[in-house]
Amino acid sequence: MIKVLFLVLPLLLFAREAAVSGVFYPLNKQQLQNDVHTYLGGATPSEKTHNKAFIVPHAGYKYSANVASKAYINLKKNYKNIFIIASSHHYTYSGASVYTKGDYKTPLGKVALNLELAKKLVRENALFSYKEKAHKKEHSIEVQLPFLQTLYQKGLKIVPILIGTKSTKEIHTIAKILQPYFQSDENLFIISSDFSHYPNYERANYLDKQTIDTILSKRPSAFVDLLIQNDNDKKADTLACGWSSVLMLMYMTQNPKYQYELLKYANSGDVLGSSKKRVVGYGAIKVYEKPFYLSKNEKRILKEIAKNTLYEAVLNAKVLSLDSRDFPAKLKTPYGAFVTLYKNEKLRGCIGTFEPKEPLYKVIQQMSISSAFHDTRFQPVSKEELSQIRIKLSVLTPRKKITSLDEIVISKHGVYLQKGSKNGTYLPHVATQMGWDAKTFVQSCAQNKAGLDKHEYKDAEVFIYESIEF
């Protein structure tokens, strides 16, 4: 019995106790539950989007919870992991500290860590470590938990990370390390930061607008310049106490598909009865993935390119000359695409590419020629056939690696498998036409497209993508 206690007690002792309950938020469980429900009940969700991250404040609930709830009310989806990234208020150290010693506690109960993932980050990356003293009194992660506990109750797993470095180079490296987790739809990132500290009410509004506008611009260098300018001019004690975490997020979201949206701004002077002489600013900002789409005009141009290219190649053995000066910017951006030819509703050729270096309009032109002349399953398209040929274009979003077949949405996602030198793909419509579930979809792709045994998909890298077909 003594041995059993000896084995169990260390696990209990390492649970991270609540450090700021009764100060930043209520100590009493029922009161805390009531308060969080009230805050969430007073918030209205923003327009539904594919949410990737939120910047939320971390002050006392009396001052900042009405702003934070404007972010949290948008959380409907269940996530495998919620990364909570904050900047250390009490200590400076190289890299970031990942909590790896047990669950977090609040008056609402325990919040489970993804301990395996937390330890993996520390084990595999020199910039990640575990610094117990950094987490012990830090409030910026803890105050987010009652909102998450109320929304998710069971099944919640967090990865708490405290950035301790002031080096932009190290912050950039941290962003690169976490980027694959950010890209996965299984995960959500919560960035914990307040804005300006202790200017008067009017100046806080002015300074925070500058800070927020710079964040929304997605320009990390401009954000750093603004911070340096403030340090030099002493306009406020800080423009953002979690600046390193915000900067890391900005580094991770340079892809044009990521968009920022301000959900709400306020400062402590907006709270009834509070002083307006020295205030703290709070903002809720959403980061979402903008869905890829093509306008009617963009589709029209691409269809004309495909058809005219095909006719020029078949009739005159020439590559159609294109003047791209007036083409929309999206058509000048590299995107993968497939061109499929049908004759009397039967396949007559299909060739495409996933990761082109050429702009989309050139990809469509090249794949139109390849489908007509270089699909080895068919003879080249002849002049006599042209009037019977129907062309279908499939423009592809970038591939995203998945770890579970549950991430595949039939009719929405195509699949791409790769194992060693073998690879293959199915476009999204294939599963719909065949009436397949996700597992059958992937198994068939492995066997019939990648040249693998159907069960080898388990050892292959599996990617999903979306396709706009017209």
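Next protein, fold it too.
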Amino acid sequence: MQQRSENIFLMKSGKNNMFDSRHYIPILKWKRAEQDALKALREDQKKYITPLIQFVMPKNKSGETDENVVTKFEEQLPQLPKKIIGAWGINPVFIDVSLLYTPSLKAKSIINISLGGNKLGGIFIPVIYLDDDQKIKDAAYLAAKEAKSGVCLRLICPNFSDLTKLNQDIYNLLSYYRLMEKDVDLLVDIKETECNNIKYIKYLNLSQSILNLSKWRTFIFASGSFPRNLSKCKIDEENLIPRIDWKSWKEQINYKKVKRKPSFADYTIQYPIYEEVTQFYSPTSSIKYTLEDDWLIIKGQRRKYKHYLANAKLLVKDKRYYGKKFSYGDEYVDEKANHFEVYIKNPLIKGTGTPETWLRAGINHHLVLVAHQVANLP
């Protein structure tokens, strides 16, 4: 077994401790709405945010083989680092390739994206899993060593079925790559929180048994409670969905059993498990608006884009609306609410917005609100 060495991954910024529990890690797919939601953030709004970007395969058109889709993604690789920095800047960002198709593509993507970002002045931190193929781990190690970025170890629920084995596997991984805990961001991701906080509490408590928990560069706990779809929400009624992930985190971080407080991570206003087939579904014309402890869903009908305007009009009159100056997303809502009367008189003017632009606005509002909540905890 190779011996671990000191400071081989000291970040080029000169900082080894990236952030504490008063920090927000949104988990976002690398799609246009998410990219634009990040890009619309002001610099002061980014202060308490470090996004984790998950890359997904391009849409598989009818008759197109997986091989063709892989080739299409590979062709995009050289441009990705520049696009990421264009959307986020040179601040640290986590890079996750787990949703790509093959180990070879994942390894190639880690190298190209991480090193490409480094050359442009960014800090791209590759994310690995305990069960990753060896070539993926090797690629992440090589990229992190070259870029002096460190790596992120992402643990999932099955990893916690045997704590003794988990800690041994972690030790083996660190030893093999000569890593210290302070070189690594530790991310525990339980995906769905389900309908209560029982699962959340279970895995947060289990995570406290990870060896040397206080020594990891950062400690992050991720989950998501936004539903798979809005089928249970009703049109012309107020629909409130509890932000169980957020409320559970707030309740648990100050318990005496918590040895180290984790940073908060979520999946914003999207279901935490990626389902590729949903790329082809047409969503309802609904506004998803994050409140302090809930999501307000103002539901519209499928493909009835005019409902966006009518619902925006309702939202800006709601006392829970944060006001157009709060975020780009809120400014967008206000703009569409004002456009409602014009559109009703002449629908040919258009300007209703699309599922993509409304998702962009909803995510942007969510990012700003959660970052504000995390930074201002008592």
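About the second fold: The two ends are 45 Å apart (CA to CA).
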